[in-house]
Amino acid sequence: MINGDSVYDFDPTKLSIHTRDIGLAGIEVYDLLRDEYNIQIEFGDIGNILAYLSIGDRIGEVERLVSALAEIRRRHQRSVTDMLSQEYLQPEVVISPQEAFYAPKKSVPLEESIGEVCSEFIMCYPPGIPVLAPGERITEEIIQYILYAKAKGCSMTGPEDPDIERINILEGDYCHGSLVQ
Q1: What's the predicted TM-score (pTM) here?
Q2: Within 13 Å and on the Cβ side, how many CA atoms surround 126?
Q3: What are the backbone dihedrals phi and psi of residue 104, each rounded to the nearest 5 degrees, phi first?
Q4: Which residues contact 59 (CB under 8 A, 6 or more apart)?
Q5: Tens digit of pLDDT for each residue in 91-107?
Q6: Which residues pair with 175 in a beta bridge?
Q7: pLDDT-derived band of residue 181, with 50, 70 and 90 as boundaries?
Q8: In angstroms, rounded to a whole number, what is the distance separating the alpha carbons of residues 132 and 111?
Q9: What 8-state DSSP symbol labels residue 148?
Q10: What are the CA-CA distances from residue 175 to residues 54, 118, 135 (Å)?
């Protein structure tokens, strides 16, 4: 994993487990571990969970985690057909974030925002990286990601509407970075 260029070191205290291959979002596995097995891990996102191992953890606790994960796979595994295949969506930046943040805006229903320019942040936590930032074009793919993350139980932060039923967009028509009157 260490390539001398972009990966400097490996942290043996962090255990990252990919969950999408068993048809479960990481947040679903996180909830199962907490609610059914009384195991608290660091976080779950759309496709992974992260557990920290420390000097205070004994081999029995690690075995308990591994056993719980095996049982979750056996009892809860689903088809990967309905899973998102990626977590990163390449944004189309239409205008600078600063311009978009201070520009006139209006609130519209989420599903009616496709093709518009976003004027606020929308982040899925964890990991807290923006799905949308001010100045980025809203696409069908982004809307599907937001709806999927909400359905899986991810905490969505940033927008004025905490339920993300509505989203703030720029007023006027924006095409290739300039306002079209």
Answers
A1: 0.70
A2: 15
A3: -60, 140
A4: none
A5: 899 999 999 989 999 99
A6: 178
A7: very low
A8: 14
A9: H
A10: 52, 13, 11
